[in-house]
Amino acid sequence: MPVCVFDAGTLRIETANTAMVRRLQYSLDELKQFTPLHFLAQADQGTGLASLLALLQNGKKRSVLWDTLYRRKNGSSCQVKLRIRRIRFKQQTAFIAFFDEPADHPARHPAQTGFDLRGIVANIPGMAYQILRNHDGQTTLPYVSEQSDMLLGIQAARLQKHPELFYELILPEDRPAYLAAQGKNGGSPLSFNWEGRIRVEAWKDVKWVNLRVSQRTVAEGVVWDGIMLNVTHSKLNEALLKQSRKQLSALTAHVESVKEQERISIAREIHDDLGGNLTAIKIGLSWLHAHIPQSYGKLRERTRYLDDVIDQTLDATHRIASNLHPQILDFGLVSALRWQLKSFAQNIGLPYEFLSSHEQIPLNPETSIALFRIVQEALTNVAKHAKATKVRVHLDLNGDDLRLDIADNGIGTKLTRTRHARKTFGVLGMAERAAALGGELIVSAAAGGGTLVSLSLPYNDTHK
Asked: Are 38 and 117 in a shared domain?
């Protein structure tokens, strides 16, 4: 059975089996220059476009079937039962077409099947059309589906006579892009892939439409098979998603800002109040130790022990306060990252390399703490998961671009080893911090193995 797979956007054939090559008498490379509509009888090509539109827009319907004629390279034709099914091919929506030559089943009349398909298309927000450019340069619309009235407010027969009516519907601000796309395709109306807005004045309605076309050569000239889809709903959803994403990012940035302010406040209280009280206790204990007679050996030993405990508690207090808000950030990000990596190496025992294009990079406090936290989270991931023997941190300011790279030579994370792995909360947190700064964070495989966390952001917005 001849079988071919073709792209849903361009309708161009992607691949075909040997039966298709043998029956149609074209090589595979030749077949890839056509669409399946090329081999149908002219009278059935409009029905074919309508059926593809039905499959694109009807999520519940996965295939259509009708009887038609297909033409071979030598000009002969044969009755076939054509079945087209929507599939996923190379991670994209595509169609697979089966050209079955029925031996024992009576063929249905093409017109009858076309009537059934028109019933399906009647409830679909889109239309199918064909453009024919003759050898003398004249352009006509031999086929426009009845959905043009519902989509454009123009009856199919009228649009066939006056194709320029479509241009008049396009919003003025979208016309330059339309004309630019049209110019790239030889100036043929409705003959290219384009997305924009139209306004139907009678309905006081603005719609987003998407045009998908494919070109082929016929005896009369050049034909463009096109599908126009109403994508208003998806565009509105996209706008809502973008707005929600923007609001969520703003909320995330606000939450992070509040958290950092709380950390600063807690760190200050720990350093000033708890640290001050512990220092006072240490002074008092030292005075007490000095005034205990030498004959009270066990009591003096006990005071020395308590003095050591106070020293350890003071160290812990300083460490906790530094983790909440590193005072080293007051000396700049470069100094803070150098201190952070030194502490990381001491605690984990992992060699590191730190390079900065500048010794001082002026940044506002929000950016400095965000970059510091991103490095902190990345280093935590290295310690927990990487099994690395070295980590590298590079900070580079090049003109208006600030770039921060954290790389290790470990086994890599699930995010880099598995293509479809979900991002962890740690990575999502880093990405949200980067987005709040107007930058982008990418986690990928490092050269030579391991993981690379790369952040880039515009510098002109980070030092105001």
From this structure: yes
Q: Which residue range(s) make up the domain with 1?
A: 1-124
**Which amino acid makes up residue 227?**
I
Please state the three-class secondary structure of 388-447 as a single string: CCCEEEEEEEECCEEEEEEEECCCCCHHHHCCCCCCCHHHHHHHHHHHHCCCEEEEEECC
Are residues 249 and 298 located together in one domain of the fold? yes
Are 167 and 57 contained in the same domain? no
Q: What's the number of domains the chain is made of?
A: 4
Q: pLDDT tens track of the chain, all 464 residues? A: 788 888 877 788 888 988 888 888 899 988 888 888 888 876 677 777 777 777 766 666 677 777 788 888 888 888 888 888 888 777 777 888 888 776 444 444 443 444 344 454 455 567 888 888 888 888 888 888 888 888 898 898 999 888 888 889 999 999 998 888 766 655 555 556 788 999 988 788 899 988 877 777 777 888 888 888 888 888 888 888 888 877 877 787 788 778 878 887 888 888 788 888 999 999 999 999 899 998 898 999 999 999 999 999 998 888 888 778 788 888 899 999 999 999 899 888 899 999 999 999 999 888 898 899 999 999 998 988 888 999 999 999 988 899 999 999 988 766 554 443 445 677 888 888 888 888 899 998 888 788 999 999 998 766 55
The rounded distance, in Å, linking the Cα atoms of 81 and 87 is: 19
Specify whether 270 is located in the same domain as 221. no
Residues with Cβ within 8 Å of 247's Cβ and at least 6 positions away in sequence, in order, are: none
Q: Are residues 336 and 449 in the same domain?
A: yes
What token pair was written down for 235? Answer: 């565009």
* Same domain assignment for residues 82 and 136: no
- If asked whether residues 263 and 375 sit together in one domain, one would say no
Contact criterion met (CB below 8 Å) for 197 and 208: yes
DSSP 40: B
The C-alpha atoms of residue 314 and residue 70 are separated, in whole angstroms, by: 87
Last residue of a domain, one of 97, 124, 151: 124
Same domain, 319 and 303: yes
